[in-house]
Specification:
Blueprint lengths: L3 E4 L2 E3 L5 E7 L8 E7 L6 E6 L5 E3 L7 E6 L4 E6 L8 E8 L11 E2 L3 E5 L2
Parallel strand pairs: 2-11
Antiparallel strand pairs: 1-3, 3-8, 4-5, 4-9, 5-6, 7-8, 9-10, 9-11
Length: about 120
């Protein structure tokens, strides 16, 4: 099965930036659409962004204009570049693979372990 590993999380001040990475373990990475989700303690997991194998992109309204998703199929890796971070962006960020781009968590075929993002002064 496809294995995903997130990295790049940490503690940043409001208005700061982070770049998250999602690294894949096998050569068939390019056949999957990739989504980023996030989850705060006691809250539901929510979709943040997704990118298809062909490069089509969707963002949640709450991050549109601040976050950028991209993929590098040669490594293979998917990135989430985050700018102008707000305290409400705090949570554990997960990448997930699916055959079709979606913010519906049960449709994901594989999940990473998550990386913590904390935005606080």
């Amino acid at each position: 099965q496809l294995q995903l590993v997130e990295s790049g999380g940490g503690l940043v001040q409001p208005g700061g930036s982070l770049r998250l990475s999602c690294a894949a373990s096998e050569f068939a990475f390019g056949r999957y659409d990739i989504a980023w989700f996030r989850q705060a303690p006691g809250k539901e997991r929510e979709g943040v962004s997704c990118i298809t194998t062909g490069g089509s992109i969707n963002y949640a309204n709450s991050v549109k204009g601040r976050f950028t998703i991209s993929r590098d199929n040669t490594k293979p890796t998917v990135y989430l570049q985050m700018h102008s971070l707000k305290p409400e962006d705090t949570g554990i960020y997960y990448c997930a693979a699916a055959y079709y781009c979606s913010f519906y968590a049960p449709n994901m075929r594989s999940w990473g372990q998550g990386t913590q993002v904390t935005v606080s002064a």
